Amino acid sequence: MIIRIIGWAWLLLGIALFLFPQILRWRIQKKSKRIIRNYLFAFTAVLIAVFIKIWLKADGVWIKFIIIICVLLIVKLAFFVKSKFSQKISGFIRKQPVLFFRLMALAQSACGFFMILYAS
């Protein structure tokens, strides 16, 4: 259920960003470090939710142990990478044309669509 809600949010946000990519570009230029950190947090939260769903359906102790280790590593990596990595990403994104933002919005919409489609 939670993955379906996240999927709808990603789909609708992707459609909005496809229609108005200049809003995202302006926000990134204005508050780049905080926005990149928020996107990194959202991506980490979705990835952890997917791993937890897999963990609940998995059979076997070793698979569940490996999934728990993966979740812990993802959280640790997100905290480690967010400061230096967000500065590099924001510098890269500032230089991109509007077409880049539209392609990213399409990719985000596709991820949301597949999350809705395969959430059961």
Low-confidence stretches: none
Order of helical and strand elements: HHHHH
Largest sheet geometry: none
Mean pLDDT: 76
Give the beta-strand count: 0
Radius of gyration using CA atoms only:
16 Å
Ends apart, CA distance between termini: 8 Å
Helical run tally: 5
DSSP strand content: under 5%
Notes on the protein architecture:
The chain has 120 residues and is mainly alpha-helical. The protein is 91% helix and 0% strand. The longest helix is centred in the middle third of the chain and has 34 residues, at 61-94. The model has no long low-confidence stretch (mean pLDDT 76).
Describe the secondary structure blueprint for this structure:
Layout: H1 2-19, H2 21-30, H3 32-57, H4 61-94, H5 98-118
List the keywords:
120 residues; 5 helices; mainly alpha
Short description:
By secondary structure, the protein is mostly helical. 91% of the residues lie in helices and 0% in strands. The mean pLDDT is 76.
